[in-house]
Every structure is written in structure tokens, then in C-alpha cells.
Amino acid sequence: MSEKIILKNGSGGLCLRGCGRQDKQLNVYDYLADLPGEEEEYDLVEVQFKNTRKGYYRNSNHIPLEKGDVVAVEASPGHDIGVVTLTGRLVPLQMRKANVRTDQEIKRVYRKAKPVDMEKYEEAKAREHETMIRSRQIAADLNLNMKIGDVEYQGDGGKAIFYYIADERVDFRQLIKVLAEAFRVRIEMKQIGARQEAGRIGGIGPCGRELCCATWITNFVSVSTSAARFQDISLNPQKLAGQCAKLKCCLNYEIDVYVEAGKRLPSKEIVLETQDGDFYFFKSDILKGVITYSSDKHVAANLVDISARRAFEVINMNRRGVKPEKLNEGGGVEDDKPVDLLEQDNITRFDRARKKKKKKGNGQNKKNGGQAKNPTEGQKKPAENSKSVDRERPKGKKGNQG
To answer: Residue 13 has what pLDDT?
Structure first.
């Protein structure tokens, strides 16, 4: 393996060029990095800054850049410091995905960061926490219904981006004037959503795993309560809300499966008529295909579980004017053991078969008195014993058995 395609990742190990910087959901695996080709044709690079902010810049000076290089890029005004996260022919594809047009004016990469640039960068970063605390107090004094979640200084310290959360439209013109006078920098306000804030902070979800928004979700799709209704989930706000106080993103994961499975069930409005009376829809197990009907429309009374196939049979009979004697007559729910799809991957699956064989062998030995190991031997001996008894029995005492 040549030195050209080897570099150190963040953990200190070695990897191919495609590995690059691992940064949760922001990382993009460059599957085209190790293919032979002219790298000079693609002078666009992707640079990542604090939080989820990324930018695309043109390497007009043809500086040899790799993933993980710290560079100084053009900003308005001054320059900014970021980390190269993607190079080569995959950058135009990512720009198209991010709706960034290549025909518009793209800012340039100045140089690789020098020690002087890094000193200014560290000084600016050291002021961020203090600035955030003070800006929150200023917003509270102005009675603004907003929360400033984070502050990001530009690499040269001449500009600051304030990330805030607000449920309603906020007029922060006065806030910008006060912040500019207090910190003597150019101010930019950027609104983020509650889901983005939760992803920035991170945490553990009720499932016991790290939040999806902090690990792999890159774009947030709207979640509605209809997703919970389709899956027959209780509409309890405390259970449906996530760490961001919004509906959980995982409600959308299985909604398509439930919608497809729900098409195989009859309508909830259809009433099943039998000789015992009418039955109304009460609840259903969508994935299992089991429907529960009640004899009362509003109260759970005389509940009967039937399969979807049986429900369609009763509906077709009612359309022909026929009423079955019972709802679950000949069409009750089969109490089958659920199939374990992962059973074939269990390493102890062969041990079960051996135990069954041993049990069968022990049962046959008990029937034969524990003497014959071969079942054929145990069958032949009783026949031989019966013949020998008949031969030894006296002829005169055949009828005197009492």
C-alpha cells in the first residue's frame, strides 16, 4: 500500500483515504477516493466548521489537501478556519445534494492554517462560552421570547454567529445593536429547530441508545400524530415526545409497514352480523392480522378474536344475506407459536436436536424395561417367551384356571 492513500484518522490509527474524519452523521464515506484518476480536475473541497455548519470552497491555488487538513478559507469579512472533510470527485455530488449550484460564485481556500492563524482561532473560541452567557442575559433584559443556544466565532474573531431557538417570530433588531456594541464584532443571527438543538447537545433516548438526531439523522422530516394512530400507539404526549419535547422521529420508521399491513384488514366501520347479534370493531393487531370485535358499540363486551380471513368471510356472507351462527365458527385465531427469524443464526440450535434424540432413546429403554438397546430385540423376546410357556403347560389342566 503506497503512502499516497494512507493517512492518520482522529483516533491515531491508519486508514484509507475514504475513511477520513469520523464525525457522527456529518461524515461522508468517500467511496471514490481510491479509484485512479486525475484529482486536479476536481478543485472543490468540503470544509466543516463548528456544529453542523459546512461550506464548499474552490481550491484555486491547487494546494495539496487531504481529509483532516485545517485550512483558512475566504469569509465575509476576513477569513475562517475549518477542517477539510471531503475532496475529489464526490464533492460536486454533495453540492448537488445540498442544492448548491456550481455556476454561482464560490469562495476560495486561502492556505493551510499557520500557527498565527491557529492562535487567533483559539483566542476566538475561548470567548464563545462567556459571550453566550452574557447574550442570554441581554435577550432576557429586552424581554425577547427566545433562547440563545450557542455562539460561534469566526476564525479571525471578526464575526460571531448566534444560534437561537424561538417558537414565534422574534424582532431582534434592537438585540443586534446591543450585541454589536457589547462584543465589538459583526453579528449574525441563525435560527435552529428544537430537533437540531437536541442533536447538537446529544443524549440517551428512552430506548437506551444515543439519540438518532445526534448520530445519523441529517435531515429532519415532519412527524404527525397520524403516525401514532396508524400504529395503534397510545396518544400520550409524555410517551410520544422525545428529548426535544417534539414528537419522536422514530414514529416514522415503521409507518409504511403498518399502512401496507392495514390494507389487508377490513374497514373499522363495517358491522358483522351473526345469529347471536351484531359485532362492532374494537381493536386490531395489524401485524398479526387479528381483529377483536365487541357486541356493544361503545363498551368492551363479549369480545371475540378472529382472523382477517374469517372477517372477510363473514362480510361476504352478510352481503349475500346469510348470517353465520357464531362469529368465530370455523375461523378462530390459530394459536401458533411465533416464528423466530433469528433462530437459524443461534449457535446452540444443533444442541437442541441432540437433546431430543437423547430423550427419545431414554423413552424407548423405559418401555423395554431398560434391558434392550435395540428396539427390535425387545419385540422378539416376548414372542419367544410366550411359545415356551405354551409348550411347558400341561394338557390336562387347560380348563382349570380357578
So the answer is: 38
pLDDT of residue 199: 84
Which of the four pLDDT bands, split at 50, 70 and 90, describes residue 233? Answer: confident
Are 9 and 58 found together in one domain?
yes
To the question of pTM greater than 0.70 for the whole model, the response is no
C-alpha cell at 192: 435552529
Q: Distances from the Cα of 352 to the Cαs of 257, 320, 366, in angstroms?
A: 34, 51, 22
Distance set, CA 382 to CA 226, 372, 378, 388 (Å): 73, 12, 7, 10
Residues 164 and 71 in one domain: no
207 and 182 belong to one structural domain: no
| DSSP H helical ranges for 40-114 | 91-97
Tell me what pLDDT residue 338 has. Answer: 53
- Over range 27-33, report the average pLDDT: 71
Q: Is the dihedral of CA 132, 134, 138, 144 positive or negative?
A: positive
3-state helix, strand, coil in the chain (%, to 5): 35, 20, 45
Dihedral angle over CA of 46, 50, 51, 56, nearest 10: -20
Same domain, 12 and 76: yes
Owning domain of residue 19:
3-113
